[in-house]
Design brief:
Helix content is 32%, strand content 27%. It has seven helices and 18 strands.
């Protein structure tokens, strides 16, 4: 039995069964449940079961909150009848546990209350027909047969009309999705995960960017006990610049996943890019990534470091940070020495000194 039914949104009427392992939902095709809803985030949340078999929903906190009964939630246990809203899409909970539902028993009519015929309102009532039969005498049998035949034909006609109306209603309820839609222009969304792990440490960072410019960076560095989460809104010109750079990498022409096994280490590139109407996802594990993958990953990393400057202290090795600090300090000294030659030299000197402090 299904657990949810969509009551509002493009997929209204669709029933959803949550698998035992849970179900991620959002606008990205990488989710288990893809919602064609511009107000939903790429990776919005997840339906899942806890150990007691109860159904829960969790919100990933990437944008507009998931609500249960119009109340924003981070994580909430669900019960039958709850209305879960995600953007302009709403789910009604019709089953709130992971156990088998078993056979559904419908209420039975009493034997003497079940009508032997269905009166569609096109002919006389049963009492009127009974009177007609008594009045007709021996001709009643022929008249009854003709009447029943007409009733069957009329019933078939009515059923055919109802089926046709139902099909047309379904077409209308499907909305614009039944019409050809031109692909959006100049849109970009991506998700990039990088993991470097061995027996001594796990270093992981996740970069997510949706087409509205919401940029989320999560970094986990176990050995140094560093856990960073940064959020920023990216301007449209910067989004277009990043999209243009990624267009030149031939990422969408790259092949399938490259997965290998290496003892004592875990080296992962997991990259998903959606550009206008094009989508591509590739995973490289314990293998040397192809040039187009490495190039795309490098562009995204540099973009992240330029937009979230604190990432320099995390994503760049310490020797390089020291070298950058020395270069910035020397540039600052040079501009400070030339502060009388032009007015902006002093401001540039201060900027270079601040960069040196950041790297250090």
């Amino acid at each position: 039995m299904s657990h949810l039914i969509i009551e509002q949104g493009r997929e209204v009427g669709t029933e959803v069964t949550v698998p035992p392992g849970g179900m991620k939902f959002g606008r990205s095709p990488a989710n288990d449940l893809v919602l064609d809803d511009s107000s939903v985030m790429l990776f919005h949340g997840r339906f899942f079961f806890k150990s007691d078999g109860s159904l829960w929903v969790t919100d990933f906190g990437a944008g507009e909150k998931t609500t249960v009964g119009e109340i924003p939630v981070d994580e909430q246990r669900l019960k039958v009848g709850d209305l879960v809203s995600v953007g302009s899409t709403s789910f009604r909970v019709i089953k709130a546990d992971s156990a088998d539902s078993g056979e559904v028993v419908l209420p039975l009519y009493e034997a003497n209350s079940v009508p032997d015929e269905i009166d569609l309102g096109f002919g006389p009532s049963k009492a009127e027909r009974r009177n007609e039969v008594h009045a007709a005498g021996s001709h009643g049998k022929g008249g009854s047969f003709t009447h029943r035949l007409m009733q069957v034909l009329i019933s078939m006609l009515v059923i055919g009309v109802l089926v046709y109306v139902g099909i047309e209603a379904l077409k209308l309820s499907s909305g614009p999705s039944t019409l050809p839609v031109a692909p959006p222009e100049n849109t970009l969304a991506l998700s990039y995960e990088r993991v470097q792990a061995d027996t001594a440490n796990i270093f992981r960072y996740q970069l997510d960017l949706d087409e509205k410019g919401n940029f989320i960076v999560v970094v986990d560095d176990l050995i140094n006990n560093r856990h960073v989460r940064k959020e920023k809104r990216i301007s449209e010109p910067m989004m277009l610049q990043l999209a243009s750079q990624l267009d030149e990498t031939a990422f969408f022409e790259s092949g399938s996943d490259h997965v290998g096994i290496a003892e004592g280490q875990y080296d992962l590139y997991d990259l998903t890019i959606q550009r206008n109407h094009r989508y591509h996802h590739i995973k490289v594990l314990n293998r040397m990534p192809p040039q187009e993958i490495k190039r795309a990953a490098s562009i995204i990393e540099e973009f992240a470091k330029s937009e979230v400057r604190e990432l320099f202290t995390i994503l760049i090795p310490t020797p390089e940070l020291r070298r950058y600090a020395e270069q910035s300090y020397q540039l600052g000294q040079a501009r400070f020495a030339e502060r009388e030659l032009r007015h902006r030299n002093l401001a540039e000197a201060i900027s270079h000194f601040e960069e040196a402090m950041l790297y250090l």
